Amino acid sequence: MARHADSLESLYVVVDLPVSGSDSYPSVVSSALVIELVGVGKTFDGGISALQNVSLTVPTGSVCALLGHNGAGKTTMINILSTLLRPTTGRAVVAGYDVVRQAAKVRSSIAMTGQLAALDWQLTGRENLVMFARLRGMSRKNAHLRAGVLIEQFDMTHAADRLVTTYSGGMMRRIDIAAALVVSPKVLFLDEPTTGLDPRSRRSVWDLVSALKGHGVTVLLTTQYLEEADVLSDSIVVLNEGRVVESGTADDLKSRVGMSYCTVSPVNPDDLAKIVAVVADLKDVQADYEENTVSVLAPNGMATVTEVFRRVDQLGVELVDISLRRPSLDEVFLHLTGKVTA
Questions:
Q1: Which residues are in the ABC transporter domain (predicted)?
Q2: Fewest CB within 10 A of the end CB: N or C in the chain?
Q3: 236-289 per-position pLDDT tens digit
Q4: CB atoms near residue 228 (< 10 Å)
């Protein structure tokens, strides 16, 4: 996928959004912001509250990650921003257009992929792309040209003329995202785009998202993978029970929670169990056998490190390293929501 970033410009030279008079250009309140929510709430029948007083902004050409456990309100927010749901309260603006009063103009400015690939299983990858291009108003000739560009760009030449039912999960996701880009969007909504993908396919999607950002496309990404948000996002919004509990960059969130951890790595991995036992009475003990580390919450900073070192030294365990570190995004998420991700 390394060549994707180099040639991504070809995604934006075949066709532009339709223009029909001066109304085609968004009356953007601020050109620096492409998404803005003010006091947005959503209540479903039966009084079920999915979102409560949500306010946030997303700058143009950035990647914003929405984090939250199942039922936190991530998909509801995406559905409101993409005009699939109307908010019960508040106001949402996308690309300068109100999602309720100017829904058609919002839809002409966005693209979206859901958790499941929206493809016709009886068609090939190429035929799917041509179909989506035709649905977006392209001529037959331009639709085929666009499909060819996207197939090459997404490294799918070898499989373009096979039925999508023969595709792996990663290949299917690439064609699904390509279909969302047949017309260049201002905003791309990705609802858990790497769920169920193997690590290699997940990295391929990450490369693609990074390349899109480099060409001015704003990406709003929902994910339950904390590493994904850490790697890709310029900003993070943490949702819990329909409310925004924290927002900022990954570094902001890690600093703001005011926590630190003492991490110990023994020379001999067999000593991990001994270390866990000797610090078991301390807070939030975590053993990572793949990374060969034991971490404990360090509420007293270096004093906690000194205490951990004293205990481990009494065991006679030789260490590779002992250090004080900031929390990971996983630990921040757990602290903010009290729940682990899937």
A1: 35-266
A2: C
A3: 999 999 999 989 888 888 877 778 899 999 999 999 999 999 999 998 898 999
A4: 21
Q: How far apart are CA 71 and CA 53, in angstroms?
A: 16
Could you tell me which CATH number the domain at 2-254 has? 3.40.50.300
Q: Cα(295)–Cα(229) distance, rounded to whole angstroms?
A: 22
The encoded tokens of residue 172 equal 């299917």
DSSP structure string for 46-74: TTEEEEEEEEEEEETT-EEEEE--TTSSH
What pLDDT is recorded for position 28?
39
CA dihedral 179, 183, 185, 189 (to 10 degrees): -20
DSSP string, 306-324: HHHHHHHHHHT--EEEEEE
User: Quick one: average pLDDT of 316-326?
Assistant: 93
Residue type for 199, please?
P
CA 304, CA 157: separation in Å to the nearest integer? Answer: 56
Place of tokens 């560009």: 149
Residues 292, 302, 283, 224, CA torsion sign:
negative
Phi-psi region of 2 (alpha: psi -120 to 50; beta: other; left: phi over 0): alpha
Whether residue 202 is predicted with pLDDT greater than 60 in this model: the reply is: yes
Give CA–CA dist 60/187, Å, rounded.
9
Nearest-angstrom CA–CA distance, 123 and 128: 6
DSSP for residue 236 = E
With beta carbons less than 8 A apart as the criterion, state whether 139 and 154 touch.
no
pLDDT at 214 over 90: no
Question: Could you tell me where in the chain the CATH 3.30.70.100 domains are found?
Answer: 260-325
Residue intervals in the chain for CATH 3.40.50.300? 2-254
Confidence of residue 160 (pLDDT cuts 50, 70, 90): very high
Q: What is the DSSP letter of 197?
A: -
pLDDT surpassing 60 at residue 3? no
- 52 is written with which tokens? 């409560």
What pLDDT was estimated at residue 31? 57
